[in-house]
Amino acid sequence: MEEIQAKLLGNSKKGRLEKLGKTVSFICIAIIVFVVVSILYFVTSKGLSTFFTDGVSFWGFLTGSVWSPGNVGENGQPLVGALPMITGSFLVTLLSAVLATPFAIGAAIFMTEISPSTGKKVLQPVVELLVGIPSVVYGFIGLTVVVPVVRSVFGGTGFGILSSTFVLFVMILPTVTSMAVDALNSVPRYYREASLAMGATRWQTIYKVVLRSAMPGLLTAVVFGMARAFGEALAVQMVIGNAALMPTSLVTPASTLTSILTMSMGNTVMGTLENNVLWSLALILMIMALFFNILTRWIGKKGAMK
Amino acid sequence: MMASKLTRGFIYLAAAITFGSLFYVVGFILIKGIPYLNLDMFAWKYTTDNVSLMPSLITTLIVVGMTLVIATPIGVFTGFYLVEYAKKGNKVVGIVRIATDTLAAVPSIVYGLFGMLFFVTFLNFQYSVLAGVLTSVIMVLPLIIRSTEEALLAVNDSLREASFALGAGKLRTIFRVILPVSMPGILSGVILASGRVVGETAALLYTLGSSTNLPDSLFSSGRTLALHMYVLSSEGMHVNESYATGVILIVVVLMINGLSTFLSNRLTKGTK
């Protein structure tokens, strides 16, 4: 009896294998957590060292409008105002989202409500393909097509917020469309049938029933598109002109958080103020990314409660 | 009546503009680029005369391959833990989910900077294939974890119960029963990840560097196709060659997409 018990409960080859499986999976989990914590730690500590080591005032950094790291202003503080870049980032993100939303949702309605068969067979794969097109391709089209057009219409160099908005608009369009399609498809069929049975027309059904019940999904799609636009670096950097100035119009060169990071990171020395302020910009980027993340979660939760 | 005609018109217009602009992007690159595709561009060695994209094409394959080899096991085993090992309501699952969501939301330039700080400078890998690969691994992990999780959750519990009832252990159940069923879902996540690495520029610029040579070791720098296109167009000297590189890039993306559509078709067929 005891022999059998020892045999069953003791160490066997299979038992060891089972333990190994669990250990390996747990190590993988630990790696993930370690990576996330170290990214958060590195970016945060580097980003905050501008304020704690170099003594730049936090408020001055956020609201200063002169960006000239390495030079000192009249008040003895380094000239590291990030407001031009913050403004640039928010402007291009908001404008491109405002521009892309109606088109994406219109196209999604077309694909799901008006012509579902072509939508599913032809347009859906096309949109999914376009989600995968590398952003540098969009940036390159912006450089060779959009910038010259803007230049000939508005004068100036053609580089600026308007060109970036166009590039980001086309870039996030497939992403938002594809997510909006998913949201519309997840509206149950009997909602539509009930509405039609009540005598509502097709447009009333789309407006008052389908769009309304798909609202959380549509909002998530737009927020997701905004997050992508906000974080895009090289495509924007290619067309915005990269002048760290407060944008005065939509067609003068400006810059975003990401474009300044791409431009300057290679030219600064680790540990100097010039380098640290760039990390502060990266910190802002990351905080915004987390904010977008929380926003989508919140929308999801609100939508689920109904 | 009037209003519904207007909205109808708007929806058609929106669809036309959306698809028109997207077709334009692809069509424009193809039309401008295909005439400039010639044998010189596929020469083994890059010179400023032939502007060959061959080294960057091979580097792309190396970086994508190595990234997947490292990221897939880590991501898949994480998925195993989250779905198969962790008990319901386990706190670890919540923490890891928040962690991967955070990872997925971080802009790729931030990955690039982290890679530069940690791999390139701190671990002293310099601009190298190794630093680029490890950075891309971090970038694609959330994608692979998410798709593994979804694929595993889609497996019917009765399969697990049947396997346990026959006396199979957890590990055996996972590898013999669950993995074969969920394979297409996991693979399509892996393919998505490879597409992401192919298109990535910001995360690789400061980790992989932009050397035009074919990397001869893990510690030498290189450039992927997307980076090649970015550098060419920012130099502004070889516009036509940039278009041609764009064509190859789109072809690669098309192939990856085709593969994932094929797999997801097989997946839906399997469940029917």
Q: What is the 3D form of chain B? A: globular
- The CATH architecture category of the largest domain in chain B equals Orthogonal Bundle
According to CATH, the fold-level topology of the largest domain in chain B is MetI-like fold
* Order of helix and strand elements from N to C terminus of chain B: HHHHHHHHHH
- Give the SSE order of chain A as H and E letters: HHHEEHHHHHHHHHH
Q: How many structural domains in the coordinates of chain B?
A: 2
The total beta strand count of chain A reads: 2
How much of the sequence lies in strands of chain B comes to under 5%
Report the structural category of chain B. Answer: mainly alpha
Q: Which two chains share the most extensive interface?
A: A-B, 84 and 85 residues
How far is it from the N-terminal to the C-terminal residue of chain A, by CA?
59 Å
Count of DSSP E strands of chain B?
0
Q: Please tally the helical runs of chain A, counting DSSP H or I stretches of 4 or more residues.
A: 13
Low-confidence segments of chain A, given as residue ranges, are none
CATH superfamily name of the largest domain in chain B?
A: MetI-like
**CATH top level label of the largest domain in chain B:** Mainly Alpha
| Rg estimate of chain A, integer Å | 26 Å
Helix fraction bin of chain B: over 70%
Major sheet summary line of chain A: 2 strands, antiparallel
